Amino acid sequence: MSSTLTGCLRPRLVQHTTQATRSLHASSVQLVGRSHKKVNFKAHAIKNRKEHAEIYDEQDRAYDMEQMGDWEYDDHHTYGHLLIENIRDVRKYVRMMKFEHPTLSQYAKPFRPPPSTNILRFESTVTVGDKVQAQDRKVVLRVKVSDLGLKGPELHKFLLLVGVRYNPETDELKMSESRESTSLLNKKKLADTLSELINEAKKKDDMFADVPLNFSYHKYKYKMPFPKEWLPKSN
Length: 235
Known about the structure:
Elements: H1 2-24, E1 29-32, E2 35-38, H2 41-62, H3 78-100, E3 121-124, E4 139-144, H4 153-162, E5 166-167, E6 172-177, H5 183-201
Antiparallel strand pairs: 1-2, 3-4, 4-6, 5-6
Helix pairs in contact: 4-5
């Protein structure tokens, strides 16, 4: 049975294969019956070139402003199309809010404030939707000096080491780093630098007790108090 089916299908397969082969070589060889007739490639190329030129000319005429007909108020103007495109964008995000955002509720986690032991605060910039920019590498470190646990001569020496990076009005130390290739490396370098400063401030070899602190670099800003008479009176 299988040999009979194979014998019946084989001529059809050979016929389809021959037709496919003929269609592939039809551009270079014309098959008339069983005789082969060579094609003049130069004339064939000229003909194809003319056909492509006509297609390109038709496309050019379609977008030619000089040959464009008068506007018969049957379509939107440019600002109308821009408005429609804006509406499409808004509808796209509305659909996302309705159908996709509810599915993210299962991944929501309750907010937990950081513990009091996390005294370091790092700030960095991330450019969304673009390659990594130069400003994305920069990291800023902020920390309250009173949280570092330095007292007396150690605090005096530490403030001398950090210099103008200390804000005496807010008791905050601010340092930045952008020389490394990534923000993570800059963050690590800031943490290492702060550790080195603390260790250096705790060394007892020279505490620089005779060097006074100078905060003349800081300009104090006067904050005007809000008038209490402007506040609404509670009944």
